[in-house]
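Thread title: Can someone regenerate the structure for this chain?

I was given the following input by a collaborator and told the matching structure tokens would be attached. They weren't. Posting the sequence so someone can regenerate them.
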Amino acid sequence: MYGKDKNKKPKFSLYLFFNQIPQPQKTMPSTPPKYPNLILFYFSGTGNARFAAQKIATLVRDKQVEATVYNIAEVKRDYPEIPEDALIGFCYPTHGFNAAPSLLNFVFRFPKGKNRVFLLNTRAGLKAGKVHISGIGGLALWLPALFLLFKGYKPIGFRPLDLPSNWILLHPGLTKNAVKFIVRRCEKTLEKFTEKILSGKPVLNGLLWLPLDIAVSPIAVGYYFFGRYALAKTFFANYNCNNCGLCIKNCPVQAIKLLDERPYWSYDCESCMQCVNNCPQRAIEVAHGFSFFIWWLAFSVVPAAILIALVKYGVITSEFLHEYIDWLFNGTVFLTGLIVIFFGYRILHYFLRFRWFNKIITYTSFTHFKFWNRYKMPESYLTQRRRDAEF
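Best answer:
Regenerated them for you:
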């Protein structure tokens, strides 16, 4: 048999000699920060965008750069004074393939300036096995950037961040292990992003998603002008509600009010999921069964009945109806859809006072069952020691 002789000592060589000497570790020199301070604004429902803002602020302070973080829900129109040499950042969630309406309104009214800015939008990150699945941003990065560009600012950063999805209207909240996996991955992304953006280099990761973002932009427009109002009328308080008032107090857009001694969601609701995910009684639900029924009426039965009635009473001819059926049907849906949903929701809210009816609506909601998890950014990832203005 052929092989190496294990008892044979290796010959001396300069390669082996020098290979045994510890070599000095090569470290990449850290680029000095270009900006003396960072002004960061965030809007958050369940804590994702808040986590991103806090993480960036912490990393910036480690580089001896002053960082101030503002909650848009608290700032409203009282804009802080911003130094000319400051870097400005915006962290916010994606709502309906667009930026949250609160963020859009805030940026639209933002005072003019010439500072450099970056935008970071959190998207619905998911986990399949060991794979981190990205969400879709749509117009979330580009519409606010356009507003800021027209105001004189120079956008230098576009960064989507796929933190855990909180959209439990459509799917159960993620497991603790999935949340931990996704957050750890996003922390590394934030570290790289902060290092690069603070050095003055542009971060253009968002441009990679531009073709897909453009493709879903019609959905974003439809959601902003129509869909979000329909979704606002899907929430209700079940029979476990004890009227503690936390949902009303903590709503970031003050969209919940007390009506007939029950929480009532107005059209100002942005479906940020803060109330559903944070109710201590788990009493806030999504009326899946009732919503499907009302939407069937609003988007199918009622428009068809109106068009049939118009033909019956001679307002339009049957020939005209058949020729322009698509335009007439869609136009009728647009004009009457939200009206049907609104009155259907008012009827729902009225009958919720009866326990038997409340139970029927509750048990036809997916969110009522234990397998439908709630979600919020774990407290271990959020800094609670200081208020937002002191971060």
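DSSP finds 14 helices and eleven strands in the chain.
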